Amino acid sequence: MTHQSMPDPATNGPATESDDTATEPESSDTSMPERIVTRVRVFHNNQAREAMLTGYEIGHTVTEVYTYDETDPAATADDLDVADRAFELFNIGDDPAYGTPDPRAVEYRDRKNRSLSVGDVLAIAGRFHACDFTGWREMGKQPTIRQQPERGTTPLY
Is 143 buried (19+), middle (13-18) or exposed (0-12) by CB count in 10 A? Predict the structure, then answer.
């Protein structure tokens, strides 16, 4: 199920999550592994043209454009696995040429968002990762969020 953060009425800012990861039993059958449900937040780099050449740099600001829950049925995925799935999801996940379109990718594109690209950022269970030229780079801290609409970037709130 797709979730979108709603503004926190007390601060007029994004809603905050006290726990971005939860577990739930797959079924009452004890031989089934627990599913890990992880909150994933998607951010576009506001310096997108520069970031395409240099990657994310300290001082770049980002716009939160989408939030969803990723469920790993095997409970074995690490952040890089989740990030790689997000990259695929928001680049080809809405294209029927690659199989049945994922409703999250369709919703993301319906919001007029561009593909996830070099320099963009994901928060996976509260840990931030920047999309690099090859793979993902863990960030030491949260980037500055500045909700800035532009072509291909539709702010979530």
Answer: buried
